[in-house]
């Protein structure tokens, strides 16, 4: 059994930066246990499995696995999957003019995608799950588990918890220097994640470099990913959170950077839109295929 398999650097304009994701095609007959073993074999933070559509209004169904477990939504591997389906497998056609709108289903529900080619380069914009937040009291020891001191937190931006499925804890720090000093204790963070009911910890600063709106770092020890290079799902939620804390007219465009501390810098474009059910962040960015081949099972 051979299946087309790709590795794509997502949220990157060139190879060997951004966040690498595996993409395996034609895996409809594979069960979750085999998908999990494949993800563990590829060793990327997530591997995407585009599967046949499960409803008539969607083009496909998507599943994502870290080396340790399945997740309900993944931004960078979704970007990688649509990049492969358009540019490598040619299963979705995107003309040179206009916007192609499609959708996919996943454990987080039905989500929309917009595909276009401005200036001849593929642009992928992905709707993320709705974001809802509540302020939380920071547990004793959590700041130290991140390798920080309490004075590093930005007093103008309260700590917030995303209450959706696989939500994160969002902590703002004063500046890039504080962000760079993060040195997480994975085991301790895993315990705090279970205590707070969050999937991960997002440390961000609004003190970003000129031309960008925030820089962030993301830690998911409970999923076997101590630090993720560039996290689309967290960026989409962060866009909605910034809108909540610093309201502006919508739609609103933001630009986030991540991954520099890991030597894998990437950029996520976020468009915050007011949807019928909630404010949502749409995420986009560049992607580069760095490996094409077949996986033999």
Description:
With 297 residues, this protein is of the alpha+beta class. Helix content is 20%, strand content 37%. It contains six helices and 18 strands. It has helices at residues 32-42, 75-88, 142-145, 176-180, 186-196, 232-245, and strands at 2-10, 19-24, 47-51, 60-65, 70-71, 99-106, 109-116, 123-127, 133-135, 160-162, 168-172, 200-205, 214-220, 225-228, 252-258, 266-274, 279-284, 287-296. It has an 18-stranded mixed beta sheet that branches. The longest helix is centred in the first third of the chain and has 14 residues, at 75-88. The model has no long low-confidence stretch (mean pLDDT 97).
Task: Itemize the secondary structure elements and their pairings.
Elements lengths: L1 E9 L8 E6 L7 H11 L4 E5 L8 E6 L4 E2 L3 H14 L10 E8 L2 E8 L6 E5 L5 E3 L6 H4 L14 E3 L5 E5 L3 H5 L5 H11 L3 E6 L8 E7 L4 E4 L3 H14 L6 E7 L7 E9 L4 E6 L2 E10 L1
């Amino acid at each position: 059994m051979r299946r087309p398999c790709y590795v794509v650097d997502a949220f990157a304009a060139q190879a060997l930066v951004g966040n690498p994701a595996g993409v395996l095609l034609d895996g409809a007959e594979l069960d979750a246990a085999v998908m999990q073993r494949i993800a563990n074999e590829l060793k990327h933070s997530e591997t995407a499995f585009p599967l046949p559509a499960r409803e008539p209004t969607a083009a496909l169904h998507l599943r994502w696995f870290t080396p340790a477990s399945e997740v309900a939504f993944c931004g960078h591997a979704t970007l990688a999957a649509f990049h492969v389906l358009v540019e490598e497998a040619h299963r979705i056609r995107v003309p040179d003019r206009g916007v192609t709108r499609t959708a996919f289903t996943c454990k987080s529900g039905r989500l929309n995608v917009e595909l276009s080619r401005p200036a001849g380069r593929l642009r992928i914009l992905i709707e993320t799950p709705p974001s809802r937040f509540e302020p939380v009291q920071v547990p004793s020891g959590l700041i130290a588990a991140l390798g920080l001191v309490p004075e590093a937190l930005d007093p103008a931006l309260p700590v917030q918890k995303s209450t959706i499925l696989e939500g994160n804890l969002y902590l703002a720090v004063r500046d890039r220097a504080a962000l760079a000093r993060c040195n997480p204790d994975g085991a301790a963070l895993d315990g705090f994640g279970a205590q707070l009911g969050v999937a991960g910890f997002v440390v961000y600063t609004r003190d970003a470099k000129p031309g960008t709106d925030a820089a962030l770092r993301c830690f998911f020890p409970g999923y076997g990913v101590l630090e993720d290079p560039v996290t689309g799902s967290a960026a989409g939620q962060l866009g909605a959170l910034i809108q909540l804390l610093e309201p502006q007219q919508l739609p609103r465009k933001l630009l986030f950077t991540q991954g520099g501390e890991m030597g894998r810098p990437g950029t996520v474009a976020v468009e915050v839109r007011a949807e019928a059910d909630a404010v949502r962040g749409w995420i986009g960015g560049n992607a580069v295929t760095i490996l094409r081949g077949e996986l033999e099972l």
